[in-house]
Amino acid sequence: MALLFSRLQRNILKDPGRLPADLTTLKFGQSFAPHMLVCDWSRSKGWSDPQITPLQKFQIHPASSCFHYGVECFEGLKAFRGPKGEVRLFRPDKNVERLKTSMARLELPFDFEGKELERLMSALVAVDREFVPRGDGYSLYIRPTVIGTHEALGVSPSDSCKLFVISSPVGPYYPTGFKPVSLLAEKTAVRAWPGGTGAYKLGANYAIALGPQTEAQRKGFSQVLWLFGPDDQVTEAGTMNLVVVFGDAKSGEVKEIVTPPLSDGMILPGVTRDSALELCRQWYGSGKVSERRCTMKEVLNASKEGQLLEAFGLGTAAVISPVQRINYEGKDIHVPLLVDGKMGPVAKRVWEAITSIQYGRTPSPWSVVCE
Ligand SMILES: Cc1ncc(COP(=O)(O)O)c(C=O)c1O
Fold first, then answer.
1. pLDDT tens-digit readout, 206-229
2. Is 315 touching ligand 1 by the criterion CB < 6 Å?
3. What's the 200 CA to ligand 1 centre distance in angstroms?
4. Closest Cα to residue 220, out of 340, 332, 336, 335?
5. Cβ(223) to ligand 1 under 6 A?
6. What pLDDT, on a 0 to 100 scale, did the predictor assign at position 350?
7. DSSP string for residues in 6-31
8. Which amino acid residue places its CA nearest to atom 2 of ligand 1?
9. How far apart are CA 78 and CA 173, in angstroms?
10. Domain span at residue 147?
11. Is residue 337 in a domain?
12. CATH number of 194's domain
């Protein structure tokens, strides 16, 4: 059986509870909306009828492939309240498309119609719409996940898997205004490499990042700047895509907006990255926006010559994380923060444009109202 929205079954709570009165108590990923979406697949039967059920624990066989061989991938997107109280998803098609590529990498059944999963996610959010908080910076974080449930030891493609979607009401990433991040350029551990899995959203990529991330935090940095190769190419910042802006730090003239290319297979194709690139191409002209390799040497030289204008991370959680300092080989590279000492003008423009679309203040096909 195919994965079909038309087969959706609903088991809805009579009293689903409500959001806390004081929304500032919401901690990222720690409280959950009361319902979940679940659908099982097996090689012999295909997809079961999708179900919206109360959030509950699973019983899974201890031999399941997710426990032993890391057969797990996931997504992260958000639902926002628009001006009329409507609930909007930001580019959900991109997340479904990326989930399918992650599933393909894990030999999971990726050949379903993306629209069906989009409609199922939308239906789940509609059921839990009271858990999409109102207010600037607030949203419902949605976590589609697929795990291998193949009940046998031995490395082989999973004969079964479970797709589920849970969600978590969240507050602003920076509740007291932007807090620029400091990065520790990692010279030893590598997050991803050509031909590896960096371009897919697999749980395994995050598990191997925990050690270096913890070490960077112990040393007082917010995130790791992941490098690659003997020439120390910059790749990603923690769990964000990275953008470096070159120009004239005195006049503020933007000469080039650079982000590492997807072609090497090391970079997660971020939805925020894609959106920011498209906007920057409109604003600054495509000649000034480059998807190309960029090394630490180039960043360091630009900084020395007053040509390093901005650096920032891009991702669903915060949209923009301005970078103020990169520690490379024991020395700090300082990045100017030209707008109120908090971020650069390119970062600010991207942040305002994307959040305005997400909250439905600027009409855009990227913002999809939940039915
Ligand atoms: C490694 C990594 N890079 C980049 C991103 C940003 O992607 P997106 O903008 O789709 O959230 C994420 C977050 O999902 C990530 O985990």
1. 999 999 999 999 999 999 999 999
2. yes
3. 10
4. 332
5. no
6. 98
7. GG-EE---S------SSGGG--TTTS
8. 239
9. 13
10. 5-172
11. yes
12. 3.20.10.10
